[in-house]
């Protein structure tokens, strides 16, 4: 964020904020060398639930968050089952 943006009070788009948060979380986990499942996944799942609930009625069991590691690649997988619309 530039100094002008900070002074003028421009707000970032939620997608870019979410992307930055995920990058910070993943960088922290890589540096920490945590073994097994990272400790941030339950918190991430709760935050996703809170945001999605603002727009759609959804059960907590309908959101699955997991991290898969393959060689030097980490994949954060988020599965969200949305209810069918009643049109």
TrEMBL record:
Q: Domain of life of the organism in this record?
A: Bacteria
Query: Which NCBIfam families has this protein been placed in?
Result: minE (TIGR01215), PRK00296.1 (NF001422), PRK13989.1 (NF010595)
Keyword match Signal: no
Family (UniProt):
Belongs to the MinE family.
**UniProt-recorded name of the protein:** Cell division topological specificity factor
Ordered alphabetically, the record's keywords are: Cell cycle, Cell division
Q: Does the keyword Cell division apply?
A: yes
- Job of this protein: Prevents the cell division inhibition by proteins MinC and MinD at internal division sites while permitting inhibition at polar sites. This ensures cell division at the proper site by restricting the formation of a division septum at the midpoint of the long axis of the cell.
| One biological process term in Gene Ontology | cell division
Species, as recorded: Comamonas jiangduensis
């Amino acid at each position: 964020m530039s100094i002008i943006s900070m002074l003028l009070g421009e707000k970032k788009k939620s997608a870019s904020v979410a992307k930055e948060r995920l990058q910070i979380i993943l960088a922290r986990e890589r540096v920490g060398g945590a073994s097994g499942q990272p400790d941030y996944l339950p918190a991430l799942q709760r935050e996703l639930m809170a945001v999605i609930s603002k727009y759609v009625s959804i059960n907590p069991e309908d959101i699955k968050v997991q991290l898969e590691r393959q060689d030097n690649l980490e994949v954060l997988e988020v599965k969200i089952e949305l209810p069918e619309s009643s049109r």
